[in-house]
Amino acid sequence: MVAVAALALYVATVAPGVLPADSGEFQLAAATLGIAHPPGYPLYIMLGWAFTRLTLDNPAWGLNLFSTLIAAATLTVVVVAVRALPLGPRTPFTRLVASLAATLTLVGATTFWAQATTANIRILVALFSALLFWLGLRAMVQPTLGRLVWLALVTGLGLSHHGSLAFVALPVWGSVAWSWIREARARQARQGRRRLGRNIGVVVVAGIVGLLPVLYLPLRGAPGVPPHPEALVGLDAVLNHALARGFGGDMFAFARPSLLPDRLRILADILRIEFGWPLVALAAVGFVRVILRGRVGLLLGGGFALPAFVAITYRAPQTVEYLMPAYVAFALLVGAALTGDWASILPHLKLAGRRYVTMTMRVGQVVALLGAVILAVVNIIALWPSYAALHHDDTTRQAAQAFLAAAPPDAPAFAGWHQATPLWYLQYVDGLRQDVNVEYVTPAGAEYYPTTWRRLLEDAAQRDPALATNRYPTYADAPFTLAPAGSGFMVQQGDPPIPDGAHAVDAAFEGGPVLATAQWGQPPNTAGEPSSPVPLGGVTVEAGDAMTIDLYWRMVEAAPSDLAFYVHLIDDDGRVVGQADVGRPASALGAERTFVTRHTVSVLPTTAPGTYRLVAGAYQPTPDGPVALAANPVPLAEVQVAPSSQPLVTNHPLRRALEGGVTLLGFDWDSTVPNGRRLYLHWQRDVSGALTTVHLEVAGQTVAEVAVPDASSGSVITTAADLPPEGEVAVVVDGQRVFLGEPSEGERWINYGGKAALVDASAYREGRDLVVDLTWLGLQPLLNDYSVTVKARGDGWSQANDGTPAEGAIPTFKWVGGMLVHDRHRLTLPKDAQGPITVTVGLYDAFTTTPLTVLDDRLLRLGQAEEPAILVVD
Strand 412-415 to strand 437-440: parallel, antiparallel, or no bridges (unpaired)? Predict the structure, then answer.
């Protein structure tokens, strides 16, 4: 029943179609019987191909749906595996609830849910892990030839899918061999060595039969088979692909003693993210219980520890995915902690008052059983909003269709990995724009990735116009121009043409620039066709969301210096509630040049619903500040700001209904700016009406007031107030008080583009290293790969550390709303570094280096729109 319910849950949240990156590659390979990147995953490709024959109208969705079935099968095996645990006498109640708790633990794991609703190979790794544990437990208890043959066959099939399953098979077979050898010695006088050898031979043959799917690689390894373009000819080529020899240097790269403490800390944090500390503690109890049982400890304890060690010492991102076998073992350890009768150990102990101890232990076991089930259900409920949102997200297909539709006939198109695979899928499977030559821009060794892009685009632009998915700041002075085209950019010689239908402006500025047109960056429509440009009037955007504006400029004369161009969203008093500035070097601002600037304007989440004005302008950056090139900005349009419809994510959830028709949903503290603190309050409008005035008190004295604006019933609104640096705070509405206390040391709330918030930060010196610990909170499910940049600045020096969060272990495209991620960065300080150190933190797109704007009006006024100063270290 649990597996059936989980299947319904996963089908209700399954991804709707084609996906980016590796998932898109697997959807393409399965739909066309192609070959994926090493090790090729032949078993998954063949099974996926067979299943997609049932969903020929949308094979990509079919492969996503295939994952839901594999996940349900995995959960079914977990149920029977928990019941097979030889851990003492069990009652029907403990067997039922222990297997239920173990299964729900896995159902509510963040990464397992993600893999259960998208096309990926990790979910099949989870199924084989569960099968190995279950069959291993059965063969360990009674190593009959039939059970050993089944275990060998599944081992071979698992290894044909992914070599990492060897680290599950090793402890499983070690435990089974332990039992088998004891059994064989007992039977040796009766059966003789010949029969034992024959049985071993049968088991080995079964394992070899399981490896037969690998033959798919040479049979389908012809040149041009998508998505792998090279032929797999010869034994060496097949082995290189099947064994993924190119990744061999990454194995155990972090296994050095100096690095292991940090890697183990990351493992603990991942387990917290996936399951929560209470279930981690329960699994630790299960780990101790199985370790004390010898062979069971080797099988299940080793089945968790060895794959976990291999995953955390592997030098590659996405550690959260590589830990999938350990997650299955973790769920079984939760079951091991709860199964059996805890009081059964009492006869071995000499205790006074055994009767009362027995009663206490059994009551404790019942509480633990029910608590584990409740905790697992709570995890599922917390994850539901994110996966429900992803169920309706078809932006990958829409962006890919818009990109292909914008390409000239037979044009070359350059794409990053995230975008290349869905583009190939649309070409090979849906038959769209097969004339376009989509080329994946492969990282060229140590060469800076934007440099690789620029080199390729410069060469392509000299021949014909080309399309590109990525745009980097280094393109500003390139010998080619970029213009928005679909979801990408047209790369060509000469100036970009001004599009038809754009909103004409024709406003001149001092220093040469003339704003010619403005265009709203509409997404493609549901049919996948790019929407026509529309005037900016009547645009609606939600608080905390963003809109894209393309401005086309003409230079009448060459600019004498670098210039910057901006788009601001302002209220009636001229206060800025959203902005985006784009700089251009003087070398790109020659006379009679036309160019385009793209502005992603993020609206502050504290913006009240209403009508705002969108304006544009230009200025000259100088050491003394910006020098405007016009007295007033140019009006573009009126924009309606609506309340956010995103599920609320807050560091301090709180639901208190108050007078005035409002409910306080939660609050967040930010102590980034010195000599003060900011309090963010999140409200729900229960009924529409007049403004609701809220008083904020410290020691009984009002220190600030905020107004919750009128909005439709059910709307979520965020307000902010700047408060004195000390004292407990109370929220007062019409005499009703809600005490909020004070922020903890290091607490922050820095909102980066509505994607993630930095909620805690601290730093300390460790020898010559500066260790910076950050805590991120995902505000919504993320589909992009963002990198964190941490910079330390002192007197005459600076250092930086950039990378994927948690040392590459937890990339942002695995984040969902409410996920807390601890992220440590180490920066080596100069030998003579003295005095205070200012630490700044930014978050930017890993593929385009486009930074996320900080949604904080105080930091924007300080000029810290992208990399705010979060703390100072003495």
Answer: parallel
